[in-house]
Design goal:
heterodimer; A: 113 residues; 9 strands; B: mainly beta; six-stranded mixed β-sheet; four-stranded antiparallel β-sheet; globular
Chain lengths: 113, 116
């Protein structure tokens, strides 16, 4: 798997957009970008993923640069419940048809009232 | 429907004892993963099961660790002769991967293991 780098922590004011960056400069053509988050004392939760195009769902938007070397997760209106560790990972399907991934330490997002 | 469940939620054991951790994946999910998360750290991949294929055990840290899965259902992670460094949260995840693209993983709440 390609490695990713994320800032260790970020703050965001409640109600404002949270923009979480991720660098994945060694990503290969068949690797997807996935985002998960982990709220304190819970298991990680899937947020969104993409390959080349920008993606949006009910939770967030994912912006992937044209060269695919970086991406940004956008939470459009952060709430206190969005305080969590956010993990950016890249993954493809190996010959066995699954993704073996490494979750780094992620970005700890603190939403401030 | 029910999500991934794990039991026990907490386990305290003495050094040298064996422990068994259980994971019930989402019904119909063919893939099952085990991870370890030490305090303040990211998730460390341990082992992966996919249907009836041979599991990928490449992440198991030592031969004290083993895991089994019956078909596409329950999985058990066993740690023999536990050591203090085994203290961590053990997370299980399952996924269903449509042909041609990776599937998102659904995580259980984890088992917090404390080795005294």
């Amino acid at each position: 798997d390609a490695k990713t780098t994320q800032p260790p922590s970020m703050d965001c004011a409640e109600g404002r957009a949270a923009n979480l960056p991720c660098n994945h400069s060694t990503i290969s053509g068949n690797e997807y970008v996935y985002w998960y988050r982990q709220i304190h004392s819970q298991g990680p939760q899937y947020i969104i993923h993409g390959l080349k195009n920008n993606e949006t769902n009910e939770m967030a938007s994912l912006i992937i640069t044209e060269d695919r070397k970086s991406s940004t997760l956008i939470l459009p209106h952060a709430t206190l419940r969005d305080t969590a560790v956010y993990y950016c990972i890249v993954s493809d399907m190996n010959s066995g048809g699954y993704q073996k991934v490494t979750f780094g330490i992620g970005t700890k997002l603190q939403v401030i009232p | 429907g029910a999500g991934v469940s794990q039991s026990p939620s907490n386990k305290v054991t003495e050094k040298g004892k064996d422990v068994e951790l259980r994971c019930d994946p989402i019904s119909g999910h063919t893939a099952l993963y085990w991870y370890r998360q030490r305090l303040g750290q990211g998730l460390e991949f341990l082992i992966y099961f996919q249907g009836n294929s041979a599991p990928d055990k490449s992440g198991l840290p030592s031969d004290r660790f083993s895991a089994e899965r019956t078909g596409e259902s329950v999985s058990t992670l066993t740690i023999q002769r536990t050591q203090q460094e085994d203290s961590a949260v053990y997370l299980c995840a399952s996924s269903y991967s449509p042909a041609g693209r990776p599937g998102e993983q659904f995580f259980g709440p984890g088992t917090r293991l404390t080795v005294l």
